[in-house]
Amino acid sequence: MSVVDRQEWDVVVVGAGGAGLRAAIEARERGARTAVICKSLFGKAHTVMAEGGIAAAMGNVNAGDNWQVHFRDTMRGGKFLNQWRMAELHAREAPARVWELETWGALFDRTRDGRISQRNFGGHEYPRLAHVGDRTGLELIRTLQQKVVALQQEDFKETGDYESRLKVFQECTVTRVLKDGERVSGVFGYERESGRFFVLEAPAVVIATGGIGKSFKVTSNSWEYTGDGHALALLAGAPLLNMEFVQFHPTGMVWPPSVKGILVTESVRGDGGVLRNSEGKRFMFDYVPDVFKEKYAESEEEADRWYDDPDHNRRPPELLPRDEVARAINAEVKAGRGSPHGGVFLDVSTRMPADVIKRRLPSMYHQFKELADVDITAEPMEVGPTCHYVMGGIAVDSDSAAARGVPGLFAAGEVAGGMHGSNRLGGNSLSDLLVFGRRAGWHAAEYAGERASARPRVDDTQIDAAAAEALRPFSAEGEEPADGPPENPYTLHQELQQTMNDLVGIIRREHEMRQALEKLAELRVRARRAGVEGHRQFNPGWHLALDLRNMLLVSECVARAALERTESRGGHTREDYPAMDRTWRNVNLLCRLADPSGGFAAGDPVRGQISLTRETTEPIRPDLLALFEKEELVKYLAEEELYE
Amino acid sequence: MSSYEARFKVWRGDVQGGGLEDFEVEVNDGEVVLDIIHRLQATQAPDLAVRWNCKAGKCGSCSAEINGRPRLMCMTRMSVFGRDETVTVTPLRTFPVIRDLVTDVGFNYTKARQVPAFVPPEGLGPGEYRMMQEDVDRSQEFRKCIECFLCQDTCHVVRDHEENKQAFAGPRFLMRVAELDMHPLDAAEESGLDRKRTAQDEHGLGYCNITKCCTEVCPEGIRITDNALIPLKERAVDRKYDPLVWLGNKIRRRPASSG
């Protein structure tokens, strides 16, 4: 058996972005000894890339805002597929989570009377996003990082050890959740620097690993976004919910090729930027769907008046939810009205003075200047859709963030499903991280506390199996040469990204998704032969070979669920079923590992590794339904739901 | 679009030692140094160790020295080099090498822990904070820091002086002290903590002789020396006893140069 370093903790948090750090802070404050596992360096998580802001109905800029309005906007944005209790908790608790950050040292941009400023964003009825220029995610992660340090300083004073109650394991990756029977017993992982394996024993594990964007070629996501947490949950026996819903952010950079996909914040539009096609037309006016007709301006004049007088004018259609804008851009490009590099034009240069642009959108100014030689104060940007966020994720209990079916497993942030329904509104991600990160940390600490005297046992055979799995890439060469030569993990990754981009992308067709499932089966077989050179110390080829397992699992979930859902809704658009279908409104699709024993038919495209089941969602609570007008509800809900 | 073959020298090795390795590698229009490093991984050196995350200049992971200058690889475009120029990429010199371009930046995390955290004002609950934009502007500039540690790498106090690392927090964390000291609601003083004093006594502010190297390499354009370190020095000691403050003021009055 392998010699593996073992430690005991009460709560282990996998992931050190916004959700993971918020969970860790909460668990530690509630008395649990908490370990945080961080795939990168502490403070580098993908959360730093969030730009626009944190949505919270504080009502600082428009006093008409409150949690009910925020809840309504969130449900509309998600096309009513949201796990409504999550949307309710999120809308109710977000303001407290933002204010709390100030007490930890965050410095948001201010209103004239000294409160936290709030900006407009797509799908939000009022200015709602607390922000710091266009680097809000950095402020969030740094504030949480510094709060972790503050707690460590307290512990140092008391115990003489900074890490006695809260420790960050930097540059470590978890490859397996360990179990004692049905219950979680800890995690198995490796340290990048040394390549050594370790086991953290704990009754409660919070998964907060973010998203899956690195399975797509054009993406705004960073290298860590390989669906690790989604896969860990599946492998531990927990189901994933509604994985077909993948958000393509409408505005990513399209040129030069090496930066294709890098995000252009929605704040550009929130602050007045407009979208034009090659004919100079503000085309979004042609793409307002019926369900949103009453809320959006019909003329440029009305749209332009809205910025100064939102009470008497309707909002510009550039501020429709992201799925609508992304589809519209896609359609314009397809119709031959795109920009030279295959996007459309996003212009602030004719809308605001140069100094205002530089002050409000400093990162965007910098990004285009440095990477594309474009001065956004003088000329328009070229933008197009980029894979940005997965709405689907681990199925969780709304109040406790507990994963379904695996006692001791919790999930928060992007890796958890349900909150955003079929499409997430901008700004609702950072608030989601804080609200449900805290809840996950709270309930994980409580769960661990209840089991302090009867901790689950870690099974040595699971450790050995995990170690063998992790070491397989080093022995690919020479093992069963009849299978074929070792595969280059980088090549496999590129093929996977191309497959998902082309065949399960923004517009989906049945035959293409079937083709994708076949290609995924082929890649699964080849990935078993992924081989690496060199040794275990900081070896990126090895890390990628291990991440491939996760990306392949998650990609199969996306493709299978997308094939099953025969309608278009939010982040799932079917060319062969272009309309939203009310009978699908209350249907969740759950993905489970087909053969949890591990002997799955990896090479069989029909069986694959994932099985799908349908489930009917819980009816929306009547007092929450009463927040909407009947006329609006009939557009979304099936007849029988309306009369219940 | 035009491609060409570029010559690269990349430092490879570990704590035991190493050296520059030569590569010839394809470069395409619009690419940055990090793209080329990734191409080397995918085609020639699969185990070439490098840190990176966002590839958009926001996370500060891919710091290295390119032709001897500390830079982010993701924000260094290949077009700034001539096509026949050899591009040399080496790890940050101030920190111990782990492998190839990856260094042990633990120094920075140790220093971060030594700066006492924000002290919330008594009697103000969540949601009751009121601060004017002009009062948070200064600290906000410092909070733009992405912790790439290029300033820490270039600072000559520690660059070739391992012995100073104990006493000196480096520009990034002296700036953190300045940020908290300038925070309109930080209640450190009320709690008996004099941040200016600790900057001098515990974080080695006196070692800094304001040569502005840190400001020059900052990818966020933060004016570390002018806006954080010099004001902190001014607050920390009586100006007439610190000739460097006098000198700094002279330098500061020059018109702002580029870079």
UniProtKB/TrEMBL annotation, chain A:
Residues in FAD-dependent oxidoreductase 2 FAD-binding domain copies: 10-430
InterPro entries reported in the protein's UniProt record: FAD-dep_OxRdtase_2_FAD-bd, FAD/NAD-bd_sf, Fum_R/Succ_DH_flav-like_C_sf, Fum_Rdtase/Succ_DH_flav-like_C, SdhA/FrdA/AprA, Succ_DH/fumarate_Rdtase_cat_sf
Coiled-coil spans in chain: 506-533
One Pfam entry name: FAD_binding_2
Recorded superkingdom: Bacteria
Database matches in SUPFAM superfamilies: FAD/NAD(P)-binding domain (SSF51905), Succinate dehydrogenase/fumarate reductase flavoprotein C-terminal domain (SSF46977), Succinate dehydrogenase/fumarate reductase flavoprotein, catalytic domain (SSF56425)
Keywords of this entry: Coiled coil, Flavoprotein, Oxidoreductase
Domain Fumarate reductase/succinate dehydrogenase flavoprotein-like C-terminal, residue spans: 493-590
NCBIfam families named among the record's database cross-references: PRK07803.1
The name this protein goes by in its record: Fumarate reductase/succinate dehydrogenase flavoprotein subunit
Species per Swiss-Prot/TrEMBL record: Streptomyces composti
UniProtKB/TrEMBL annotation, chain B:
CDD domains: fer2
Superkingdom of this protein's organism: Bacteria
Pathway assigned in UniProt: Carbohydrate metabolism; tricarboxylic acid cycle
Residue spans crossing the bilayer: none
Originating species: Streptomyces composti
Protein name stated in the entry: Succinate dehydrogenase/fumarate reductase iron-sulfur subunit
Pfam families registered for this protein in UniProt: Fer2_3, Fer4_8
Cofactor: [3Fe-4S] cluster; [4Fe-4S] cluster; [2Fe-2S] cluster
Domain 2Fe-2S ferredoxin-type positions: 6-93
Keyword Oxidoreductase part of the UniProt annotation: yes
Similarity comment text for this entry: Belongs to the succinate dehydrogenase/fumarate reductase iron-sulfur protein family.
SUPFAM superfamilies: 2Fe-2S ferredoxin-like, alpha-helical ferredoxin
Key words, A-Z: 2Fe-2S, 4Fe-4S, Iron, Iron-sulfur, Metal-binding, Oxidoreductase
